[in-house]
Write a structure and sequence with these properties.
By secondary structure, the chain is mainly beta. The protein is built from no helices and 11 strands. Strands 2, 4, 5, 6, 9, 10 and 11 form a 7-stranded mixed beta sheet that branches. It has a 4-stranded antiparallel beta sheet with strand order 1-3-8-7, with no helix packed on it. Strand 9 (91-101) and strand 10 form a beta hairpin.
Length: 119
């Protein structure tokens, strides 16, 4: 099992910046990928960005050029630097980890942290 604890988030004006952080504990040796998803009211959860153990990143088109994901393998943490925030970025942001076990990939989720961008 992997436990994920998020920090950061809050209220910011449009154009501002926020930083989210997530720390993993438990069976961290099994983690192959970490990242962030978000869910706005009335919408499905969607990918924001992911990063693998070797540093390969993937971003949603809507955040490319504005958000930067980074990871620290030694500390089992992942961070998301969010710049030029827009009201449409308002959502609950969830930390995510993919763990490999017995040839299967298991998804782990944090409890979520609210990001609100005011116009």
């Amino acid at each position: 099992q992997v436990q994920l604890v998020e920090s950061g988030g809050g209220l910011v004006q449009a154009g501002g910046s926020l930083r989210l952080s997530c720390a993993a504990s438990g069976s961290t040796f099994s983690i192959i990928r970490m990242g962030w998803f978000r869910q706005a009211p009335g919408k499905q959860r969607e990918l924001v960005a992911t990063i693998t153990r070797i540093g390969s990143t993937n971003y949603a088109d809507s955040v490319k050029g504005r958000f930067t994901i980074s990871g620290d393998n030694a500390k089992n943490t992942v961070s998301l630097e969010m710049n030029s925030l827009k009201p449409e970025d308002t959502a609950v942001y969830y930390c995510y980890a993919a763990g490999a076990r017995n040839n299967r990939v298991i998804d782990y989720w944090g409890q979520g942290t609210q990001v609100t961008v005011s116009s």
